[in-house]
Amino acid sequence: MHLLQTVRAIQSVVGDGLNDAELTSLLQKQALPTEGGFAFLNYSDRVVTLSVPKQDLAEWYPEAGWITEKKECIAKSIAQKYGLLVCEPPDTLFPWRDAPNSHHHLELSNGRETIITAHSQYLKIRLFISADPVRSTRAVQRPINLGPDLLQELSALYHDQGVN
C-alpha cells in the first residue's frame, strides 16, 4: 500500500475512538512505508504532515522573488492535473517590511480548503475534507482520494525531476 492510503486505512479502522495526538502516536508505532522520499510525522485536523528529503534552499527561494520558477511550474502542473488552485503565501502571517529572505510556500487548494502545503522543510496533505459545502464541520467529512501517484508526483518538488 501507499503511504497516504495506509494512513487513511488505519484511521478508518480506528474510527473516532482516538484523538489526533493518540492517532499520531499509534501511527508512529506502525511500520508505515516511506514513499517518494516522504515519511510520516504527524496527523492533525484531517491533515497528515510528512518529512521531506533535505533541501537546498537556493533551489526553492531565489535572491529576489517568492518561489523559484521551476518549483512554481511543477506545482502548477500538479494542481492542474488534480483540479486545484495554486497560491504562494508567506511562511509567516505578519512578515515585517524589511525582513531579509522572506520565504513563501506553495499551497494547492480546492477553493475552500488547502489540500496540499509544500514547504522546503515539510509536506502537508489533507486526507479528509468537509462534506458540507456551507459549514466546515469536523463531524461531516469525506476522504479525498487524489490517487496513488500523488506522492511520486509531489516528489518532483523535492527531487530535481519533472512531472509526467
Report on this model:
With 164 residues, the chain is α+β, with helices and mostly antiparallel strands. It has five helices and eight strands, in the order ααββααββββββα. The protein has one domain (3-158). A hairpin with a 4-residue loop joins β5 (114-118) and β6. The chain starts with a helix and ends in a 6-residue tail after the last helix.
The outline comes out as: globular
Largest sheet: 6 strands, antiparallel
CA(first)-CA(last) distance: 22 Å
Order of SSEs, N→C?
HHEEHHEEEEEEH
Structural class: alpha+beta
Number of helices: 5
Calculate Rg over CA atoms.
16 Å
Range of helix content: 25-40%
| Low-pLDDT segments | none
Strand content: 15-25%
Oligomer: single chain
Global mean pLDDT: 86
Number of domains: 1
Strand order across the largest sheet: 1-2-6-5-4-3
Number of beta-strand segments? 8
Write the layout of secondary structure elements.
Elements: H1 3-14, H2 20-29, E1 39-44, E2 47-51, H3 57-60, H4 69-82, E3 85-87, E4 106-109, E5 114-118, E6 123-126, E7 128-130, E8 141-143, H5 150-158
Helix pairs in contact: 4-5
